Amino acid sequence: MQQTYFRKIALLATTLALFVVVLGAYVRLSDAGLGCPDWPGCYGHLTVPEAEHHVAEANEAYPDRPVEAHKAWKEMIHRYFASTLGLLIVILAVIAWRNRKSSNQQYRLPIFLVVLVIFQGLLGMWTVTIKLNPTIVMMHLIGGMTTLSLLWWLSLRQSKMFVSHSSYPTQFKPFTKVATIGLIIVAFQIMLGGWTSSNYAALVCADFPTCQGYLIPPTNFAEAFDLWRGTEKILKGGF
User: Fold this and answer.
1) How does pLDDT run across 117-130, given as a tens digit for each residue?
2) 57, 60, 75, 223: which is the annotated catalytic residue?
3) Nearest Cα to 226, choosing from 148, 152, 143, 138?
């Protein structure tokens, strides 16, 4: 019975993780990533301040980030769903630990997911407090995709759909290496996409397939992939 609940919660968490990733992209693309300049609340509140005196206090406390309710709500809704996802992952870990003696129960992965989702929360905080530092934003994206992938893997392993590598038909086994290479390329492409977006470089090449009329435009790789840009705030304790 517990394994049935575990499987259903794992599928629910996987679906929610997908929604959180998509919602995070929407928040990012609608320029609402700093809709709430503090964390975990919003201008010191659990919801977006709406009363006039609360808005006035928020604007006084954050003069460089006055309240924009439509952006703040997007950010807070994303945080609410992300927090719910974290709670589901904790529930999965608790069930898995209690049922760890069962041969069919995965428990190490759920515990690792708890650690991962805590780190994701820290990245979410740093994304705001370090004001959209590109490296932090990219790591947050990678963490979200990793969480989604591991939850899906967990769901498959707890279901009858999972097939171990040793059970593959002989003719399929050579394709596992190709699939692994493809997975690495996709992961790298996601990282590049996150880096491009977080550096606001998506529209630098307005034409296609050329870039500003060049097949190979003039580039500065050292500047383009400076992972430490903006992290001087961390070194100075500028949280």
Assistant:
1) 999 999 999 988 88
2) 75
3) 138
d(CA 94, CA 107): 9
Active site residue 232: no
Instruction: Please tell me the distance from the alpha carbon of residue 14 to that of residue 109, in angstroms, as a whole number.
Output: 14
**Which residues of the chain carry a pLDDT beneath 70?**
1-2, 160-173, 229-239
Q: What is the DSSP string of the chain?
A: -HHHHHHHHHHHHHHHHHHHHHHHHHHHHTT-TTSSSSSSSBTTBSS---SHHHHHHHHHH-TTS---HHHHHHHHHHHHHHHHHHHHHHHHHHHHHHTTTSTT---HHHHHHHHHHHHHHHHHHHHHHTTS-HHHHHHHHHHHHHHHHHHHHHHHHTSTT---GGGS-GGGTHHHHHHHHHHHHHHHHHHHHHHHHHTT-TTS--SSSSBTTBSS----HHHHT-TTTTTHHHHTT--
Tell me the per-residue pLDDT of 30-70, one tens digit each, with 9 for 90 and over.
989 889 999 999 999 999 999 999 999 999 999 989 999 99
CA distances from 233 to 64, 178, 194, 239 (A): 17, 42, 21, 7
- Give the integer Cα–Cα distance in Å for 42 and 25: 19
Residue 162's φ and ψ, nearest 5 degrees, are -75, 135
Asked if 147 contacts 116 with a C-beta cutoff of 8 angstroms, the reply is yes
